[in-house]
Amino acid sequence: MPPIKFSKSSNQYDRVTGKTTLVHDYMKCKSNADLIEAYNKEGIKPKLRAKVRVEIDRRNKLGLSKIVFK
Length: 70
Fold this sequence. Notes:
Elements lengths: L4 E10 L4 E8 L5 H9 L5 H17 L8
Antiparallel strand pairs: 1-2
Helix pairs in contact: 1-2
């Protein structure tokens, strides 16, 4: 099962070497503060809100965070 993405992948161009690399924005790489901010943001799509909630629940089960939803 592939990792869950937070947003679309993007290309990053290095002007020194002239190479383009693909950068993925995975949910597991985000900090707890970023996830909470995204969850509470006005106008967030329900699918992304559900993804954030699943990631926070996963971290709670592993003991990486102690975030409680009300």
